[in-house]
Automatic annotation (TrEMBL):
Organism: Streptomyces jeddahensis
UniProt KW Oxidoreductase keyword: yes
Lineage of the organism: Bacteria, Bacillati, Actinomycetota, Actinomycetes, Kitasatosporales
Name of the protein in question: D-lactate dehydrogenase
Enzyme Commission number(s) of this protein: 1.1.1.28
Domain D-isomer specific 2-hydroxyacid dehydrogenase catalytic: 8-327
Top-level taxon in the UniProt lineage: Bacteria
Gene name linked to the record: ldhA
Family: Belongs to the D-isomer specific 2-hydroxyacid dehydrogenase family.
GO molecular function: D-lactate dehydrogenase (NAD+) activity; NAD binding
Main EC class the enzyme belongs to: oxidoreductase
Coiled-coil features, chain-numbered ranges: none
UniProt cross-references to CDD domains, sorted A to Z: LDH_like_2
Length: 334
């Protein structure tokens, strides 16, 4: 059986091909799944997709009409998939429910420290042999307060690093993580976290309840010199409201590895095209904003785990087994 994998990065391709060797043939494509590319899947029972795939109802209907019966998504997030339509069409959907939390947590801290210590500005200057220190002053993290929204596996890993810095720990989540409490985290209402934290990092999933969790009111309630980092999902922040606050000269800095309208932009080379997204175009012009291309998860360790889990999801589907990774189960077989 041949499986088509959409949205495969060049670094991923040899890892995917090696993992699937001896199990199934796999054809790796660098194009993302959407209405235009869905016809490629015709005749393939199983496809694999990336987090930036468009798996809305219309695309799922096209896949089902072409004979696709299983979607193995190579990510934890699945807000890009219409699960109700998939269930109605009898398409099994599985995701990767776990991979190295350290990859994202460490990258979130990389963003925070790059902003705090003006690393990008300093690097740009020294390439021009400008070794002045003007405008490069940062702050010690030790003794300051970090606010962590979402204290699951990634949030916990982020908190452990913050504890290593000697920071005061504030957390917000629907349930307390005993490991974070043991580190000294004080769980508070998000309003208090916004008001008191010197560094705020987002590690909650994107769902209706968290859409624009960081809205205009939340941004206004934060300290003027806060550092805000989002390595989770772009839809957690109202991007236009963020631009409005940045234009007022607020915040020490903002680190964004994700953006709410990143589909069709991130993972692609748009350097020779006119940027039509005015909000993103404005964000990248601020000297205290650092935008990266949804790469927090992108380590050998995490990608290897993602691929291994994807393979096992496929093997489980073929064997009629079900795991916790399954979002929409297989239709009963006659």
């Amino acid at each position: 059986m041949e499986i088509i994998a959409f949205g495969v990065q060049s670094d991923e391709k040899p890892l995917i091909e090696k993992a699937f060797a001896g199990h199934h043939d796999i054809r790796c494509l660098d194009v993302f799944l959407n209405e235009d590319t869905a016809p490629i899947a015709a005749g393939h029972e199983i496809i694999s997709t990336s987090v930036n795939a468009d798996l809305a109802g219309r695309v799922l209907e096209m896949l089902a009409a072409g004979g696709t019966r299983m979607v193995a998504q190579r990510s934890t997030g699945f807000n890009n998939i219409d699960l109700e339509v998939a269930e109605r069409l009898g398409i099994t959907v599985a995701r990767v429910s776990y991979y190295s939390p350290y990859s994202v947590a460490e990258f979130a801290w990389s963003l925070a420290m790059a902003i705090n210590r003006r690393i990008v500005r300093a690097s740009t200057r020294t390439r021009d042999f400008d070794f002045r220190l003007d405008g490069l002053m940062g702050r010690d993290m030790h003794g300051r307060t970090v606010g962590v929204l979402g204290t699951g596996k990634i949030g916990e890993a982020f908190t452990r690093i913050a504890h290593g810095f000697g920071m005061n720990l504030l957390g917000w989540d629907i349930a307390e993580n005993p490991a974070c409490v043991e580190l000294g985290m004080d769980y508070v209402e998000k309003e208090r976290l916004f008001a008191e934290a010197d560094l705020i990092s987002l590690h909650v999933p994107l769902m209706p309840a968290t859409q624009n969790l960081i809205d205009a009111a939340a941004l206004k309630s934060m300290k003027n010199d806060v550092i805000l980092v989002n390595s989770s999902r772009g839809g957690l922040i109202d991007s236009q409201a963020l631009v409005d606050e940045l234009r007022k000269g607020r915040f020490t800095g903002v680190g964004l590895d994700v953006y709410e309208a990143e589909a069709g932009l991130f993972f692609l080379d748009k350097s020779l095209e006119i940027v039509v997204d005015d909000t993103l175009a404005r964000l990248v012009t601020f000297p205290n904003v650092l935008v990266t291309s949804h790469q927090a998860y992108y380590t050998e360790d995490a990608v290897g785990q993602i691929i291994d889990t994807t393979l096992h999801n496929v093997l489980d589907y073929k064997a009629g087994r079900r795991s916790d990774n399954v979002l929409v189960p297989s239709a009963p077989r006659s």
